[in-house]
Design brief:
By secondary structure, the chain is α+β, with helices and mostly antiparallel strands. It contains six helices and four strands; from the N terminus they run ββββαααααα. α1 (about 90-100) packs across α4 (about 130-150) and α2 (about 105-120) crosses α4. The protein is elongated, with a radius of gyration of 22 Å.
């Protein structure tokens, strides 16, 4: 998912639960291979229990690795960017994403573009000389970076698989210990 494992997590399969050591679930040391999942099998990944994130993970196919290689999961598909951490769960994320694409964001962008156009035209923008307009411009500029993670749409299967090969998930899995 791209999250930093700041919160407890659990994987659910049937009635079994595996997750963070502090969560009332079985040890996180269980490997994916120990589930003996077949193609079409599903499990649920829950993260940040107070925000209610839940993702369905589906096994497309079980492949035997070439002799002598490590057995690793492989991401074959995905869509959309990971919501940013600490954004209020699914409903908070959708509300913040809508705001990031809404009228206030448009007005901030227009204010910044107007000041930039004045500079390009060779005039000094009033937003740089008038204290009130300068404060409005500064506020608009400060709000823009907070919107960026909410506007992300990309997903990189290659980046996910690179992280799996580097076993980055093992570092995050035990950070609560």
């Amino acid at each position: 998912m791209g999250w930093e494992s700041l919160h407890l997590f659990v994987f659910e399969r049937g009635g079994a639960r595996y997750g963070s050591r502090e969560h009332p679930a079985a040890s996180p040391d269980v490997t994916l291979a120990s589930f003996r999942l077949r193609g079409g099998a599903k499990l649920i990944y829950r993260y940040d229990m107070t925000d209610g994130w839940a993702r369905e993970v589906r096994i497309e196919e079980r492949l035997d690795p070439p002799p002598g290689s490590r057995r690793l999961p492989l991401c074959v598909a995905g869509a959309g960017a990971c919501p940013p951490e600490e954004c209020g769960g699914p409903s908070g994320y959708l509300a913040r994403r809508d705001e990031a694409r809404g009228l206030d964001a448009y007005l901030d962008a227009a204010l910044i573009a107007e000041a930039a156009q004045d500079v390009v035209d060779g005039t000094v923008p009033t937003a740089l000389t008038d204290p009130i307009e300068r404060a409005e411009l500064d506020s608009a500029v400060e709000r823009m970076p907070a919107r960026q993670p909410l506007l992300a749409t990309g997903f990189s299967r290659c980046a996910v698989n690179d992280a799996l090969r580097a076993q980055a998930h093992l570092e995050r899995m035990h950070q609560w210990i």
